[in-house]
Each structure stands twice: as C-alpha cells, then as structure tokens.
Amino acid sequence: MKKQFQFKTQKTKKVGPLDKFILRDNALKTTDKDIQLRFQSHWYRSLPLSCMNVEVTIDGKKINESDMMIEANGNRYPVHQMPELDKEWLFITDAATLHIENNHSLEQGKQYEVALKLDLYIPYIILGPEQKPLLASSVLTKTLSCN
Amino acid sequence: MSTSPIKLSTSLFSLALEWNSGEYSLEQLLAKVKECSIGPGIEIIGFQSLKGFPYLPDEEIAEVNCSIKKYDFEPACLGADLDIALRRNSHLNNEESVAYLIPQIEVAKKLHFPVLSLPFSAKPEVIRKLLPVAERANVKLGLEIPSLLQVDQPAVLTFRELFEEIGSPYLGFVADFSTSMIKIPDALLYGFREAGVTDELIEITNEIWKKDTPAPSKFAELQERASALGATPPQLERLIMAFTMNGRQPVEAWKEIVQQTVHLHGKFYGIDENGDEPSIDYEGIIKVFYEGGYKGYISSEYGTAFTDKYTGFGQVYRHQMLCARILKNLEANKTLQKEIFSIK
Fold first, then answer.
1. SS3 (DSSP) at B60
2. Which residue of chain A has the CA closest to B86?
3. CA B299/CA B41 separation, integer angstroms
4. Domains defined along chain A, listed by start
5. How confident is the model at residue B196 (pLDDT cuts 50, 70, 90)?
6. Distance from the Cα of residue B287 to its chain's centroid
7. CA distance A122 to chain B (A)
8. CA B115 – CA B262 distance, rounded (Å)
9. Interior angle at CA B260, CA B292 and CA B173, nearest 5
10. Residue of A22, A25, A45, A121 for testing the chain B interface, max B β-carbons within 10 Å
C-alpha cells in the first residue's frame, strides 16, 4: 500500500507540448531477458546521453539505476555511465531503450503505470554564477500496455 | 514583395512539434513547408534536422541539397550550436569550441547556406579563430543576441566593438524579435496556468516584467514575492522564463546594429485572428531594419514550446502574411515618397 501511495504522489512536471512524445503508447515491452522502455527526448534538438538523466518507476516501484542499461544507436551502456557518454547522441526523432533487469513481474497484455523522469541538461544554455547548464526536467506518468 | 531587400524564410525550428512527432522525413517536411509558406528562404538547425550533424556523409549532403533545390528554397541560414557543457565535469575550452564549430561551418558551406547562426556562448577569442575558416567557406557568422540582452549592454558591446575592429563582412549579429516584446505572450501565460501557476502570480510576474530595472533585480523581486505567495520551485523556474525569453528593448535601439546584422529571427508566439502578433511590435521592428538598409531574410521562428493548440505550418503562413503586409506597405510608402520628391 505504501508503494501505491508513493506513486500517486508522484509529481507530473511538464516542460511543454513536446513532452507528449516522451513515452509512446507502445513504449513498454517485456521479453525473457528484460523489460524494455523506449523514450524520446522532449527538447527540440538532439543531445548526447551525457546531457540526460533518467529515473523509472513502474507501478510505484522505483527501478534501481544499477538494474538498467541504456541503448542508443544500437549501443548499450549501464545507465550510471550516461554522464560520460558525450559521443553517443540521441537524434531528436529517435528513441532510446532502457533495458531493465527482468524480475518477471511484468506480463504481456497487462497495463502498468510507468513514470519516467527525464532530466535534460541543455549544454548551450549556461546559467548563473556557477555556469551550470539549464535543467529541463520532465516527469511523465502514463498507463502503458505491456507488449 | 519581390522588390523588397528583405526576404522571408521559414526556420524549421517552427515545426518542432511536427518534427518530433516522427511523422515527417526532412524531405516531407520541406515539401509541406513549401505548401504553407510565402517566402523563398529556408533555415535549418543542424542538431534538429540532420542526424549525425555536423559529421554528415556526402550522400546525405547531396540528398539535403537535392530536397532544398527540389522545393525551390533559397538556403537562408544554418543554425549551429556551441555545446559548451557537453561534458558534465568540464566545459569546452576555447580550442575545443573552435574545433566544435569548424565542421558546422563546413556543413553550411556544403549546403550553400550564406549564414551560420552561432549562440552567444561563443567567446570573442573563438570568433576570431573561426573567422578565417568562415571567410574561406564564404559563410557569414551571425552571433545571436539572446532576448534578455539589449544592444547597449556590456556583453553585446564587446562583440559590437570586436566586429567593428575586425571589419569583416563575414561577422555580424542575428537579431531576434523576442528582444523587443510588448508583453509576455498569451501562449506563455497559458503554459503557466497549465503548470498550476495562479492568476495572482501571473499578475505579479507581468508587473515586475514591465519595470525598467536590470534583470538580476527582477529575478530577485520575483523570487521573493512569488515564494511568499507559495510558488513552488518548478513554478518559479517557469516564471523566470518570462524574463529570459521576452526582452524589453525599445524598437528604436535596433538602429544601432542594423548595419552589423546578417540575419533576422522573426520569433513569434501566435498570430491572432486579425493577422497580428499581439506581443511583438512587428511593424516597428521591421521598419527599423528596412529603413536602416538591412538586406537579408527574416526567418519565421514560431515558439512552439508552450502550446500545441495550433500547427506550426499554419502559424508560419500567418506570420509570413503579416511580414509580407508590413514590407509591402513600407515599399509602397517608399515609392510614394520618391514620387513626392520628384514632383518637388
């Protein structure tokens, strides 16, 4: 019950209309090997993976970062390596896939509440005395059918 | 229109919503833009429209050139970026910045764009080093002045002096109409309401925005008053955008840099039923550039970031109708003045 409560209080944070493309209706899939979640960026132009952070919650349960790999352009990396991936770009109309360690908790054909927090560190908009990149963060919650 | 030294162009930035939907290839998008636009020009943003930019294989360059030609567009401007904070732990230094931008100049050359727009994060030393490359490529470098900065502020003056000192036709500014806003656009306020911002907070933001005080003190006042009314940090972030995205430079101030301007970004946030952009003095701004002798393009740059109520295609058409109407009146007025002068 506590998990359910945590999920319901998950805040939805919008950057703008481009957010609607982050998670498409067919974004969630389960295989024998893993759970896959496909997402697209909500900026207007491509960014490298070094400018992104992801957090995933499925039915109120936060997925450990160490249980996730990210795939872009056919290349896979542990999610914790993302800050170093300034050479791996995600083209703005392409999707990246998060591969989540399969604990066999998801079933095909069933629906799940998926929350994706996608932080984008905009590398050309530098702000403040600390000269930090603008953070454009979206939290999207969507009920997805598992394929 | 055809006699005007100012031509109209479409920036594909305007079609972010349509592009991100994944429903269009670049060629299909260009085909649709051709149907919905009046002006001959086209502006492409490298990191938006070209996968792998700026490292593009010859076949892709040939394909893009072919599409631009097929739909009879004139290349007006290529949007570059300088991603200073590409790495989390250290910013690109000047040498790396130069190396980051050179291939982007090369793409502009290969795609026959006469201007490459650069973000304001490019430092004077970087621009000095890029100039010989730009000259060889026959591509003008246009430094885009952010909405927040006015032409007489130190950050801009540094570049005005630099451009004057060097005196190359390959260096100049890209001026953005959102530097001279009459009011915070309705689309942005609509976005605020969507984010749960109250009318009271919006009123305070409007009130502070209209003050003739420097940006940092506006940020501080907003922070203090909005927080006291219970604005959450994400809401405050959005309200601050109202200050960073909407400048209040008087239209006449543009006169000072008309001669140094190589491209214009006709930013707009929605054309109303009368065919006007109620938050920007389009007539006033275009008049200043027209009378100042600007020769080049105005690229329609629709800020889609706040609402998906309208299609970018429809908005670009309305925007170009507005600009064409203003330019036509300016031309007619000029002809009339010449006639009066010849009678005298």
1. helix
2. A123
3. 8
4. 2-145 (2.60.40)
5. confident
6. 18
7. 8
8. 7
9. 120
10. A45
Cα dist from B101 to A46, B3, B79, B98, B116, whole Å: 16, 35, 11, 5, 10
Q: Do B51 and A94 touch (CB under 8 A)?
A: yes
Residues of B within an 8 Å Cβ radius of A: 13, 16-17, 19-22, 45, 47-48, 51-53, 81-89, 91, 119, 121, 191, 194-195, 234, 304-308
Angle at B297 between CA B258 and CA B175, to 5 degrees: 45
Does residue A1 register a pLDDT over 50? no
Q: pLDDT tens digits, residue range B111-144?
A: 999 999 999 989 999 999 999 999 999 999 999 9
Q: What contacts B51, CB < 8 A, 6 or more positions away?
A: A46, A91, A94
Contacts of B218 (CB under 8 A, 6+ apart): B208, B209, B211, B243
Q: Tell me the pLDDT tens digit for each residue of A57-111.
A: 999 999 999 999 999 999 999 999 999 999 999 999 999 999 998 776 889 999 9
Nearest CA in chain B to A125: B121
Mean pLDDT, chain B, whole residue set: 93
C-alpha B299/C-alpha A9 separation (Å) is 43
Q: Which of B166, B158, B79, B92 lies closest to B129, judged by CA?
A: B166
Q: Does residue B70 have a pLDDT over 80?
A: yes
Give yes or no for residue A9 having a pLDDT over 60. Answer: no
What are chain B's domains? 6-184+246-343 (3.20.20.150), 186-244 (no CATH)
Please report which helix (H) or strand (E) contains residue B42, including its range.
strand B41-45
pLDDT one-digit tens code per residue, B180-191: 999 999 888 877
Residue A3 has pLDDT above 50, yes or no: no
The complex's ipTM works out to 0.90
DSSP string, A104-139: S---TT-EEEEEEEEEEEEEEEEETTTTEEEEEEEE
Q: Report, as an integer, the average pLDDT of A118-134.
A: 88
Residue A83 near residue A56 (C-beta atoms within 8 A): no
Residue with tokens 């429209």: B49
